[in-house]
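Chapter summary example: a protein plus CU-O-CU linkage.
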Amino acid sequence: MKNRTMMYAACVCGLLLSLPQSVKAQQLITGAPLSIPPILEESLVNGRRENTGSERVFELTVNEGQREFAAGVLSPTLGYNADYLGPTIRVRRNDELRLRVRNRLDEATTVHWHGAHLPAEADGGPHQQIPAGESWEARFRVDQEAATLWYHPHLKGTTAEQVYLGLAGFFIIDDEHSDSLGLPNTYGADDIPLVLQERRFTRDGRMDYSPRMPDIMHGYFGNALLTNGSAEPQLEVSHRLLRLRVLNGSNSSLLRVFMDGSMPMYQVATDGGFLSQPTEVEELVLSPGERAEIVLDLQGHEGTRPRLMAESNGGNTYNALSLRIAETLQQSEELPATLVRREFPSDAAAVRQRDFVMSSMGPGGRLTINGRTMDMSRIDEQVKLGTSEVWRISSRGMMMSMPHNFHVHGLQFQILRINGSRPPPHLRGPKDTVLLYPGDTVEIFLEFENYTGVFMYHCHLLEHEDEGMMGQFEVLP
Ligand code: C2O
Ligand code: CU
Ligand code: CU
């Protein structure tokens, strides 16, 4: 992985683009305590829970804001109940949810629950538009295992800009099984959400989104990394085990995340749930939209300040987070040897196979899947409720083209094979987004359960998505 990423970065950035240099550290405000998005409280009417029976009601307001990323310079931003980013929605399996969204922007938006298994009309994709000034409600039951999901806008053509300006938040699911594992789960203390976003700042310290054609084709790389909205934040930790829920919230940058010292990282979860066992990894390679949960064992590192680093395929390496480890640590439970029992799926269970070809140079020089760009009125694939399929996705392109990734709405899939071989252990958990380098073929196993209706699949490099690198599948009864 590492070598391929590096090869790629060298080629793309060396030959094609003159990339923005890292912003000088003194320009952006650095070293602040890591900001932890607040947990969203259930909404109250006159100080009391709304009388909605067993439903839990949450409210998000989409609003404009501004933020001082560089001292004395305000950048216009967007946020959910905040100037930038949004609160963490933390729910339990089987909760009945009513998620109310008020759009206070002067343009339309949507809110998509990325990674959630839910009815199509609650998905928040491009069909569930919320016009300027209006509201929308998603109602669904949390119907999947414990996982770190997230939410963000999904309107055709404006997703990239709205996410870039700050619209993103975590959606964390707990269940009885995750409670029983003894993993760190004290939010903000030893259980930390981290959204990493590569962003571009102008010389005078303003966050800038003004993509030109090469940025759209090759990715809107940046010159700074924001971690929960600020550059190079610090986190004081005093527990022996530290759980980090890492989301690559960049528009199109791949991030390679690693520790700068000798501290091992144990990956415990992929996009949609736990791995069978904690898996030691040297690095995480996350494409936009992907998540991974890692646990660090800080014993033996008391009093030190190791750093979590992130290297973008745009060529820059950033300090994503400085840990300040206490002189004495509170004991944690041992990391369990087994996290979950998960069967590796077999091709034999699939009723059919479909091919998806992602191309950076499709018909008309466009970004396409199977030669087409997104058409809201066209259903590209029809599948049957209660069946399983294998989808074979390949990324056409030479070294000069971008990597892509493939995201499917409404479900979690499993990776069967990458270029003909079984995926490495850290990619054997539930996934909703998978990375493809140019020339790669990835086979995934999908089960269409519980919900009928129209869902999306697309490249999650947001500039590609907005250009139409997306299709629709319908689950038929
Ligand atoms: Cu995270 Cu279709 O999106
Ligand atoms: Cu999604
Ligand atoms: Cu793409």
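Key point: The longest helix spans residues 2-16.
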